[in-house]
Write a structure and sequence with these properties.
It catalyses: D-fructose 6-phosphate + L-glutamine = D-glucosamine 6-phosphate + L-glutamate. By secondary structure, the chain is an alpha/beta fold. The chain is built from 14 helices and ten strands. The strands form two sheets. A five-stranded parallel β-sheet has the order 2-1-3-4-5, with helices on both faces. A five-stranded parallel β-sheet has the order 7-6-8-9-10, sandwiched between helices. The structure holds fructose -6-phosphate.
């Protein structure tokens, strides 16, 4: 069943190009317009919503953070992302003009379900992005957008995460089109870039040998930090979460801009730090700021493990290791930059002799609050 891989997680990492491809499949008509058949909600409502609130837990919430950057940019609708358990118990401002997007692999996460119920009681419409057909959350939502990742067996989420991000992009493009915020040719362009992503994800997986090697060397490491900025920030958080849950190693993700506001005090000689570098073709100021961050931590002795786009030679003077990913539009880049971090956590935990599919104290679906 593991298809020759050492673990379900390793197999599911390799399933990701297909999971993303299948989530995109059949969602445009002949004109290239997005068709979301299983999105049964009144379009008039979607035209008038004035706020989107994404609710989810864990990895699914990081997919929500990526969605925020994309949807706000494409649709100009304010997007909040909130952990479902926090949302539910703080009297959030939601009403008929709020669109709630619940993201969940299992469709059974109790915290997320309670938040969905609460939002609907306040009059909000709920669209859920779900992987598991026949689960509870889609039944209790106004509309569903299924991710087609296939069954995810390993407790730690990988292919469901990439599929959730993909589905959120589709939702963003659909809303942009519906609300007339973007010209159709721009939408078509982004959609084309999205269609090219499965092959690029495959490329990152194929290049995974070096990150595996480094992970094995680092099996005895006691702490790893992760830095990212813009969409690289949730990727850093996800990289840290994967390492905590699989390898039981202290790991923290930070927004790179936050470094000087505190976390830089953690840097001492030999501290490994992953840095997700934004594309130099995007907002150039962001790129150069992150390069300065790498320079700063390296000057304090950090071991810099850099994830950068092909051709970005600016990282070379300050990187102890570079894991290269193919070029793509910045907003889509999490689909690539998170993959070396997944491989790293999986390989390091395996090198420590741990069961990566069944980490201690965790369950695949958390059906209690
Ligand atoms: C992390 C992980 C969890 C889940 C979270 C939400 O690898 O798997 O953080 O993402 O428990 O689960 P779902 O998506 O089923 O609601």
């Amino acid at each position: 069943e593991k298809g020759g891989f050492g673990s379900f997680m390793d197999k599911e990492i390799h399933d990701q190009p297909q999971a993303v491809g299948d989530t995109l499949l059949g969602r445009t008509d002949l004109q290239g317009d997005l068709v979301l058949d299983d999105l049964r909600i009144d379009e008039a409502v979607l035209r008038t919503v004035d706020k989107i609130v994404v609710i989810a837990c864990g990895t699914a919430a990081y997919a929500g953070h990526v969605a925020k950057y994309a949807i706000e940019h494409w649709c100009r609708i304010p997007v909040e992302v909130e952990l479902a358990h926090e949302f539910r118990y703080r009297d959030p401002v939601v009403n008929e003009k709020t669109l709630v997007v619940a993201i969940t692999q299992s469709g059974e996460t109790m915290d997320t379900l309670m938040a969905v119920r609460h939002a609907r009681e306040q009059g909000a419409k709920v669209i859920s992005i779900v992987n598991t057909h026949g689960s509870t959350i889609p039944r209790e939502s106004d509309a569903v957008l299924y991710t087609h990742a296939g069954p995810e067996i390993a407790v730690a989420s990988t292919k469901a995460f990439l599929s959730q991000i993909t589905a959120a992009y589709l939702l963003g493009l659909y809303l942009a089109q519906l609300r007339g915020n973007k010209f159709p040719d721009e939408i078509a362009e982004i959609y084309e870039a999205l269609r090219a992503m499965p092959a690029k994800i495959q490329e990152v997986i194929d290049r995974g040998g070096r990150v595996r090697e480094i992970a094995r060397w680092m099996a005895d490491t006691s702490s790893v930090l992760f830095l990212g900025r813009h969409v690289g920030f949730p990727v850093a958080m996800e990289g840290a979460l994967k390492l905590k849950e699989l390898a039981y190693i202290h790991a923290e993700g930070f927004a790179a801009g936050e470094l000087k506001h505190g976390p830089i005090a953690l840097i001492e000689p030999g501290q490994p730090v992953f840095v997700v570098v934004p594309s130099p073709r995007g907002r150039d100021s962001l790129h150069s700021k992150v390069i300065s961050n790498i320079q700063e931590i390296r000057a304090r002795g950090a071991r810099t493990l850099v994830i950068a786009e092909d051709g970005d030679d600016a990282v070379l003077p300050f990187a102890d290791e570079v894991f290269w990913v193919p070029q793509c539009p910045t907003l889509l880049s999490p689909l690539l930059t998170v993959v070396p971090l997944q491989i790293f956590a999986c390989e390091l935990a395996t090198a420590r002799g741990l069961d990566v599919d069944q980490p201690r104290n965790l369950a695949k679906s958390v059906t209690v609050e």
